[in-house]
Amino acid sequence: MKRSLGVCYYPEQWPEEMWAVDAARMVDAGLTWVRIGEFAWTRMEPVPGELRLRWLDRAIEVLGEAGLKVVLGTATATPPRWMIEKHPDMLAVDVKGRVRGFGSRRHYCFSHAGYRDEAARITRILAERYGRNPYIAAWQTDNEYGCHDTVLSYSEAAKAGFQEWLGSKYGQIDNLNHAWGNVFWSMEYRTYGEIGLPNLTVTEPNPAHVLDFRRYSSDQVVAFNRAQVEILRGLTEAPIAHNFMGRVLEFDHFAVGADLDISTWDSYPLGFLEDRIDVDAAWLRRFMRQGDPDFQAFHHDLYRATGRKGSQSRWWVMEQQPGPVNWAPYNPAPLDGMARLWAWEAFAHGAEAVLYFRWRQAPFAQEQMHSGLLRTDDAPAPALAEAMDVARELADAPDVGVPTPSVALVFDYEACWAWDIQPQGADFSYFRLVFEMYRGLRRYGLSVEIVPPDCADLSAFKLVVAPGVLHWRDEMREALAAYQGLAVLGPRAGSKTADFAIPEALPPDLAALGIKVARVESLRPDTPIDLEGGGAFGLWFEHCEGTAEVLERTSGGAPAVMQSGRLRYLAGWPDAQAMMRLMAAAARDAGLEVIELPDDVRIRDTDQHRFVFNYGAEEVPAGVVPGLAAPLAPAGLARLMLPG
Ligand code: GAL
Q1: Residue 275, number of CB atoms within 10 A of its CB
Q2: Is the Cβ–Cβ distance between 441 and 465 less than 8 Å?
Q3: N or C, which end of the chain is more exposed by having fewer CB within 10 Å?
Q4: Catalytic residue among 319, 345, 352, 414, which?
Q5: Alpha-carbon gap, residue 61 to 64, rounded angstroms
Q6: What whole-number distance in Å separates Cα of residue 45 and Cα of residue 37?
Q7: Cis omega (within 30 of 0) on the bond before 358?
């Protein structure tokens, strides 16, 4: 496969004379792709109904003539100011009932039918005009659904839409009352019109009510995206993509991905480290210029999974951090070499393309402190040379091959919502639980594939890990019943029904395990329960009964790790030490090769190569990974040939 680089560009932000010069420089730098248009609605249609698209025709022509492939955005993330005059109630409303106003971006409510029509209208205009344009080689719908907390809206439009959605889900209102357990606290409804949104209640709303609202809200994102995809499909052959964001969990990315040809995401390793990872200050200091060694890889694997169609998956990095960003609490510069390493890491996980964000830093408006490949004065910023290195390396080196993970990790968006709604312990975060398991596996050199909770076939994997899954989908029950490898389940897996109630059989609600969780407790971070084998369970512990063999106990003698057949169960949340030990033991028991890696070294295998990445600021000695013949510089990487 031909893998390639690109960049995000905003022709509307620069004088037209600059376009050809910029395009020629992009081509000289070895870039293939240029993404444009996603925020340009006001320049496309300055006045309602008055289209001004000639500048865009020319921009596409200039970029295409220069030899670049254009990705065109549908512009719906930034409706113009006049749109609010036309549809005053299209703005989203936050959980406290405040309108989220105009003046930045993503100012719309997914449920608003009027805005959905406008989004479809501009998409159709662009698709009709550019769908067959030879320079348009891909499309991007909207921009980063859910970024800036924009999935949940408590508007009147959302309320009406939710009531209708509930009506078609439950039919007779009594079905809803029964499913939600509304007899509790006299919450029973007589009609769907009586049901409000689950905000502004006196104390916590019914968790089943909230979970359905989260499902409804996720479905609105899917529908919004699907409307654009359907219009584009009729008018273009070019593949359709959307750019997801890091740790945005409010909609089901598997469902959106199913409608796309290419799943892409926006990778800002230093911003993410400062902004959205649960780690201590020493870790933040240590990786401040490199980013967390597992966070990017996790999202590469997650979004690769959302892009899967059968045995194939198409995915890209649509935006790659080039230098300091502007939006995290602290915005350091990357260590020299990281803009190269990040791109190679994406390719090693199977990315087809990596586009840096952005071409030239803008000297104005919100992101004037966000770097690009060029400085505001047009001189190269440090990442340009690294991007050029990657372009040369891509041209010279053999292809990375096909990723061949041996471990599957289940990721369940409904579990994100459910454990957010009723965490039961202040620190219980589903994302954190899954991410810590992912890290534990990667610390032993394992290449992980992420799978959805309705994955029907696990036979390709020697090990399956499934923490915290809300309830077992039928497909997964069957897949687990047929599974010949080792499955590590829990904690908190299968602990609810689809209606957010405790299952009759008690968690983990999987007869073959022979375990009943008799009671659970959440723990303060400073009161861990020690384990016989070392390390501890922190934050969460389950008291289990049953017939499963006990593999390990707490220091107090309670079952901690149990197994029946090929199903293993963890009755708590392992701390860092226990996580490593338990993941290594699981991998060995599953017959996998394990290589204990230092904190800052990670590996990723394809069918032909083993990539070794040094996320550290220090040199790593040769031999730290078998076959690594020379030391690895800080931010360095190596490619080892795998036998066969
Ligand atoms: C992304 C977004 C871009 C830009 C970038 C800055 O979230 O898609 O438009 O804002 O962040 O880091």
Answers
A1: 16
A2: yes
A3: C
A4: 319
A5: 5
A6: 12
A7: yes
Please give the distance, rounded to the nearest whole angstrom, from the Cα atom of residue 617 to the centre of ligand 1. 26
Q: How far is CA 238 from the centre of its chain?
A: 24
Catalytic, 545? Answer: no
Catalytically annotated residue among 38, 118, 144, 449: 144
The alpha carbon of 644 and the centre of ligand 1 are apart by a number of angstroms equal to 42
**What's the rounded Cα separation, in Å, for the pair 570 and 587?**
15
Residue with CA at minimum distance from ligand 1 atom 10:
367
- pLDDT for the residue numbered 1: 84
Q: What is the pLDDT of residues 57-110, one digit of tens each?
A: 999 999 999 999 999 999 999 999 999 999 999 999 999 999 999 999 999 999
The two three-digit tokens of residue 525, written as one number = 């971070």
Q: Chain centroid to CA 372: how far?
A: 23
Burial 567-595 (b: 16+ CB within 10 A, else e): bbbbbbbbbeebbbbbbbbbbebbebebe
State the burial class of residue 170 (Cβ atoms within 10 Å of its Cβ: 0-12, 13-18, 19+): middle
How much is the average pLDDT of 490-506?
98
Is 319 a catalytic site residue? yes
> How confident is the model at residue 202, as a pLDDT?
98
Q: Is 256 in the pocket of ligand 1 (CB under 6 A)?
A: no
| pLDDT score for 644 | 61
| Residue closest by Cα to atom 1 of ligand 1 | 266
Predicted TM-score (pTM) of the model is 0.98
Residue 356 contacts by C-beta under 8 Å, 6 or more apart in sequence? Answer: 5, 6, 7, 8, 319, 320, 322, 339, 372, 373, 383, 387
Per-residue model confidence as pLDDT tens digits over 508-551: 999 999 999 999 999 999 999 999 999 999 999 999 999 999 99
Contacts with 435 (C-beta within 8 Å, 6 or more apart), sequence order: 277, 294, 295, 298
Ligand 1 neighbour 357 (Cβ under 6 A): yes
Task: Show the tokens assigned to 568.
Answer: 């293993």
Place of tokens 């106990």: 553
- Any long-range contacts for 193-200 (C-beta under 8 Å, 24+ apart)? 193/163, 195/162, 195/163, 195/166, 196/159, 197/154, 197/158, 197/159, 197/162, 199/95, 199/96, 199/97, 199/154, 200/96, 200/97, 200/154
Query: Cα–Cα distance between 296 and 233 in angstroms, integer?
Result: 31
| Structure-block tokens of residue 386 | 């690294």
- Which residues are paired to 47 by β-bridges? 50
608 C-beta neighbours (distance < 10 Å), count: 15
Which residues have a Cβ under 8 Å from the Cβ of 17 and sit 6 or more positions away? none
Nearest by Cα to 349 from 638, 625, 603, 599 = 603
Token code pair at residue 640: 């080892």
Residue whose CB lies within 8 A of the most ligand 1 atoms, among 106, 266, 371, for a mutation test: 266
Cis check: omega of the bond before 491, within 30 degrees of 0:
yes
